[in-house]
Amino acid sequence: MAVRSRASQVSGVYGTPYQWQGPVLVPQKERGVRYDDPAITWTLARQLVRTLYGCTLVALEAELAA
Description:
Number of domains: 1
Helix content: under 10%
Number of strands: 4
Shape: elongated
Number of helices: 1
Strand content: over 45%
Order of helices and strands: EEEEH
Distance between the termini: 15 Å
Radius of gyration: 17 Å
Structural class: mainly beta
């Protein structure tokens, strides 16, 4: 199976957020962080996160045969 999307938008990043603990920044668990999340300021990004809209599942066998 594959996913066909009518539209998409880059909505955040996947990476390591850091949090102040006293005078130092401490890494937190890796996770997805949206651009509207305040944690984005102290996040070391590894990948972009894209939101997909208007999705349809497509059987790969049908696409390859066409």
